[in-house]
Structures are given as structure tokens and as C-alpha cells.
What we know:
Layout: H1 3-31, H2 38-42, H3 55-68, H4 77-102, H5 111-126, H6 140-163
Helix pairs in contact: 1-4, 1-6, 3-4, 4-6, 5-6
Amino acid sequence: MTIFGAGVRGVVAGALGTAAMDALWYYRYRRADGKSGFVEWETSAGLHSWDDAPAPAKFGRLIVRRMLHRDLPAKNARAVNNFVHWSTGVGWGVVFGMAEGASSRHAVWYGLPFGAAVWLQSYAVLAPAKLYEPIWDYDAKTLAKDLSAHLVYGITTAAALNTLPRRRR
């Protein structure tokens, strides 16, 4: 398989994995009496402040600050949140797609350790950036909810890769 082909498959699989993870988070949100529709919830409608922004938005803001030496206006929090969230999910899908494309083994269950690794790296990156607490400061229920969502991401990404056609050179 070409690197490009593996990458394209990873883009599609990562997007599907991200959508599946978000569907689980949205389901949980609605069960907890959340009122927003899916599109409004998914796109962070009403987010206009860095103070209220979730970690992906704050991480994007931090990257811009460090690389460009300027701050982003609060009106960009929503767009930054969506961009970082989706580019992270798709980006990890590309990594997994390339690894899967280079391998002769293609098992859907590989998505479980992949999802767990993505989950762990979020704490490894976001805690030192002061956007998350250290992993040991969270209760088991919070960690289990977060891990389970990432396992859904991983297994969906792997299933998509297993379903998408493979063209060999």
C-alpha cells in the first residue's frame, strides 16, 4: 500500500472514529439532561470565551501563543476547539492507518490498545500544559468515562480501516 493510500484511509477512519466517540459523548450529555441539538453541541455553539473553553481550544490557543507569539481573540475559541478536536482525531487516524497499512495484520481489536494509547497521550500532553490535572488526580469514574470514549474511537477507527478497500502497489 502506498503511504498516500494509507494516509487517506487513516483520514476517513479517524473521522469516523471521532464521530463515533462524539456520538457517545453526546448520548451521555443528553442522558444528563443536556438540551442542545447534536450540531450545536458538536460545534460548541455559544462558546465565546477562553475561560469556558474545553481543553482542545485551550491547547490550540497555547500552540498559537508559543509559535506565533500572539494571542487569539476569544471569538476564535469555538473554531479553534473544533479544529483541534477534529484534527487530533483525524491525525491519530492517519498514524494508525499508516501503521496498519505497513503491517500484514489487520485486526479490529487492535483498536482497543490504539484507543487506550490515544487516551493516555492526552493526559501526557495536556497535564504538563496545565490543561488537565495529572491523571492520578481524577476519580476512577471520570477516567473510565474518558477511557471508554477513546476505546470507542479506537475500535471504530480500526473497524473502518478493516472495511475500507486496500490497494496494493
